[in-house]
Write a structure and sequence with these properties.
Helix 6 packs antiparallel against helix 7. It is built from nine helices and 13 strands. It has helices spanning 63-87, 95-112, 162-168, 174-179, 217-220, 225-236, 241-255, 275-278, 283-290; strands spanning 2-8, 16-26, 36-43, 51-60, 122-123, 125-131, 134-140, 144-149, 152-155, 190-191, 200-205, 211-215, 261-270. The two termini are 31 Å apart. Helices cover 33% and strands 28% of the residues.
């Protein structure tokens, strides 16, 4: 999967924002089939609120059921948000829409799980919705969303699991989390037979040169955060996101390969006329500043 989506910036900025993205997936060394799914593309085409939606999902339930659940997750999220944009004007903050779409997708997966052989199937989900200089994210389970900005890697979502909470609260190190006896236990997903869905959502402003990664836990279990950051530097420097996604997956497979591995990489590009291009502390922002497109400033 690769693509570029271009959106007009908010008036009066006479510029456009492009989201360039690509993905790669691998079954890994130990699994017989790939239960990961991903999808990326334009959202709200033909409306004033055209954007880009990227989704990664990791199936839960084993074999055919997990594969079906993850595909239902990514397809339903795209369909539900696209259909709603076609009939309604979205609020400035889309988090409620994301929450509602995830809950409806959860309901649909649970309904599909009533079919023979599908009992208990579920799927994790990580999504990013880009539009008009903003990125909204949603999360259920232990797939992850990362932001690489100004040479610093930040995990936007937090794993919805006992170990994930300990890690987020600083009670576990990354090294300790890797060997914790509950490291593969999650308490949130779409569908499944566990607790009712309680998704995470978030919002942040975009800056030129931002690089995002959505991935299944096969990647985050295989690579340390500093290794992920080192590979994402090449995306920030201009390497095609699809090639970077392939490198991430291949490196994780070499290091571990115990699970399916999926990566979606996206880079934010602003045309030089927009103020936000020069207002970032990214390498691209500094370069444009030196070329006279604006005075670079530290990112907020």
């Amino acid at each position: 999967m690769l693509g570029r989506a271009t959106m007009s910036a908010s008036p009066p900025a006479p510029a456009t924002m492009s989201i360039v993205f690509g993905s790669h997936t691998d079954v890994g060394k130990r699994r017989q089939n790939n239960e990961d799914s991903s999808r990326g593309g334009r959202l709200g085409v033909g409306t004033p609120h055209e954007g880009t939606l990227l989704v990664v999902s990791d199936g839960v339930g084993g074999l055919k059921a997990g594969e079906i659940a993850s595909r239902l997750a990514v397809d339903n999220l795209h369909a539900l948000l696209g259909e709603r944009l076609a009939r309604e004007t979205p609020p400035a903050d889309r988090r409620d829409w994301i929450d509602a779409a995830m809950r409806e997708t959860d309901r649909r997966i649970r309904a599909a799980a009533q079919q023979p052989g599908m009992a208990g199937m579920g799927a994790t989900l990580s999504l990013l919705w880009f539009e008009d200089g903003n990125a909204w994210w949603g999360q259920a389970g232990d797939s992850r969303t990362y932001l690489f900005r100004d040479h610093v890697l930040r995990q936007l979502s937090h794993d919805q699991s006992p170990v994930g909470r300990l890690l987020a609260e600083g009670d576990l190190t990354e090294k300790d989390a890797r060997v914790h006896p509950l490291r593969h236990v999650i308490d949130q997903c779409l569908g499944g037979s566990g607790a009712a869905l309680d998704p995470q959502t978030g919002l942040l402003d975009l800056a030129a040169g931002d690089v995002f990664l959505l991935c299944s836990d096969g990647l985050s279990d295989g690579l340390w955060d500093h290794e992920i950051a080192g590979i994402l530097k090449s995306a920030a420097a201009g390497e095609p996101p699809e090639a970077v996604a392939r490198t991430l997956v291949n490196r994780a497979n070499e290091a571990s390969g115990k699970d399916n591995i999926t990566a979606v990489v996206a880079r934010v590009e602003w045309s030089p006329g927009d103020k936000r291009t020069a207002a970032t502390g990214s390498g691209l922002g500094r370069l444009l500043g030196r070329l006279g497109f604006g005075r670079p400033a530290k990112a907020g």
